[in-house]
Design a protein that fits this description.
The complex is a heterodimer of chains A (255) and B (296). In chain A, 79% of the residues lie in helices and 0% in strands. The model of chain A has no long low-confidence stretch (mean pLDDT 90). With 296 residues, chain B is α/β, with parallel strands linked by helices. Chain B is 34% helix and 30% strand. Chain B has 10 helices and 15 strands. The interface between A and B is medium-sized, with 22 and 33 residues.
């Protein structure tokens, strides 16, 4: 029943995320036949700006999907919803007045925390897998094809590595008081690496290893040999650390 | 076991502020015990410590023999104790039916008969979202969720706050019926008339300290206002006797609030050549006001 409560509590956030992810996936599939002719013209123009990925983007539809979705827009949107779905918990309940009811039930604080985080992980995983279904279907409408297996693999990598954002949001939700303060602070914290540091990290090879966004995206054609196991292990450790600190903080809180 | 709740020197400090200080409470099984005090006296802090929401800074507390400061034992307490918080806020994203289904899943002794009866009597719409309920309806729902748990001990923080007189009367009747079935009720209230109507024991707290702990009948039997007219000069210390709680001297008139030992007080007045000595009973409201008024 705790999972049921966590689901009822977050389902509208999840549904908004699902709609946004679906819409974004369809948008970039539908943009493909519009963008490709423009890029082909640009490739033949010696004076036009041509990013390094452009030739591959024009020639390979799978790269195009990876570049715009799993490595860029979809990932940004997914992280936003990972934070939105990860935030909440007893401190937020305290801010809106329901903590006393929750804490009057015969449930340990750890169980409250675990059930909420578990639902957040499940919801974010489903969000990450929606493009795996939507993109192959939508691709048919533009005369292209995309592997469901690649979509699921990228989705799993994104959700697995990105679980650190759920952990961070859950941790800050038990540190910062106020109904929306943890959400705002988490988003502000993530805006710095995403908007400022990410571009720098992509130009510096060693920094890529600590660039979570880069690890979440993986290689554009994902194979077992390309999975960044070490980086995943480090990010998972960080997630466990956040969750451990959050659970500890949850037990110490007074209401 | 005769005592269902007991605390020993229970204290809670917030920085330099002592919200609850050396509180020794004892609630007998099967009683309806009222917990009285002004706003900020420490009632809610005490109740929250009892339910494991706050940790005591010092002291011990046990409910049904389980320690309140141990998380595992606190869960055992909450399996057998129903609590209604002061603000009675519930999950506003759930419907009445959803929160009923959710809450009953935690209590093996859930009383379906009482749930149906209260749903009917309190006129709660099952399909309605909690956010659309009025404050009074939310209070009724919070009480239903507590009363149907099948608990043996009910801790209610201002249970009738926000209810109309009809609903208030209904809730008071339910509380009495719970006690008649063997349950124990410990409730805080500012409605002295309600306390007089249903309570059989009074615990009064002031600035975090217990200032009164007595059966209601004894309070009503023994608390008296003694008024004497004495023409010779009188000072407060002339009536510093066992049982004298307050002395007011206004010219020749001496008024006293006496908690017991009225005969000795009257004797003292007569020995001081009082021309008249009158003894009058006090209401619980007067006793409450006199007990907390002017205390440090």
């Amino acid at each position: 029943m705790l999972l049921y409560k966590a689901w009822i509590e977050s389902r509208w956030r999840f549904i908004c995320g699902a709609v946004a992810v679906t819409a974004l996936s369809i948008l970039f599939v539908r943009l493909h036949p519009i963008l490709i002719p423009q890029w082909q013209v640009a490739l033949q123009d010696p004076y036009a700006y041509k990013p390094r990925w452009l030739p591959l983007g024009v020639s390979d539809y799978r790269f195009y999907i990876w570049h715009f979705l799993f490595d860029f827009r979809l990932q940004n949107l997914w992280v936003l919803f990972a934070v939105v779905l990860g935030f909440g918990g007893l401190l937020r309940e305290h801010a809106n007045g329901t903590a006393a009811f929750s804490l009057s039930l015969p449930v340990t604080r750890n169980r409250w925390f675990i059930s909420r985080v578990l639902i957040a992980f499940l919801e974010t995983t489903v969000l990450a897998w929606i493009p795996a279904v939507v993109v192959p279907i939508a691709s048919v409408s533009v005369g292209q094809s995309y592997s469901i297996g690649q979509g699921f693999a990228h989705g799993l990598l994104m959700a697995g590595v990105g679980s650190v954002f759920v952990g961070l949001a859950a941790f800050l939700s038990l540190i910062l008081r106020g109904e929306y303060t943890p959400l705002v602070v988490t988003l502000a914290m993530l805006a710095v690496p995403y908007l400022v540091l990410q571009e720098w990290a992509r130009r510096v090879s060693w920094a890529r290893k600590i660039d979570i966004a880069h690890v979440m995206a993986g290689a554009w054609l994902l194979t077992w040999g390309d999975v960044p196991w070490l980086s995943i292990a480090m990010v998972c450790l960080l997630t466990v650390l956040f969750l451990g600190l959050a659970a500890r903080q949850g037990r110490r809180l007074e209401f | 076991m005769d005592t269902i709740l007991e605390t020993e020197k229970l204290s809670k400090r917030f920085g330099g502020f002592e919200a609850v200080s050396d509180l020794n409470l004892r609630v007998r099984k099967g009683s309806i015990c009222a917990f009285l005090g002004q706003n900020g006296a420490g009632k809610t802090t005490t109740l929250r410590m009892l339910l494991g929401m706050m940790r005591p800074s010092q002291g011990l507390g046990r409910i049904l023999g389980f320690r309140i400061d141990d998380e595992a034992e606190s869960v055992r307490i909450r399996e057998r104790v129903a609590f209604v918080a002061e603000d009675k806020r519930l999950y506003d994203y759930m419907t009445v039916q959803q929160i009923l289904r959710f809450t009953k899943s935690f209590f093996s002794g859930w009383r379906r008969d009482r749930e149906s009866e209260l749903l009917r009597r309190l006129d709660l719409p099952l399909g309605c979202k909690i956010r659309k309920l009025s404050k009074g309806m939310r209070t009724k729902l919070a009480l239903l969720l507590a009363f149907a748990r099948g608990s043996e001990f009910f801790i209610l923080d201002e249970p009738t706050e926000g209810l109309d007189p009809v609903a208030t009367e209904m809730v008071l009747q339910i509380v009495v019926s719970l006690a008649s079935e063997g349950a124990t009720v410990f409730f805080s209230s500012h409605q002295i008339a309600e306390v007089e109507q249903i309570a059989d024991h009074i615990l009064m707290i002031h600035k975090g300290k217990l200032v009164l702990d007595s059966p209601l009948d004894r309070i009503k039997d023994e608390y008296r206002q003694v008024q004497a007219v004495i023409h010779c000069p009188v000072q407060n210390r002339d009536f510093e006797l066992d049982g004298v709680e307050r002395v007011y001297v206004d010219g020749p008139t001496v008024s006293m609030i006496v908690s017991h030992n009225v005969d000795a007080v009257m004797d003292r007045a007569h020995k001081m050549n009082a021309v008249s000595v009158e003894v009058a009973p006090l209401t619980l409201k007067e006793i409450f006001l006199e007990t907390v008024k002017g205390r440090p």
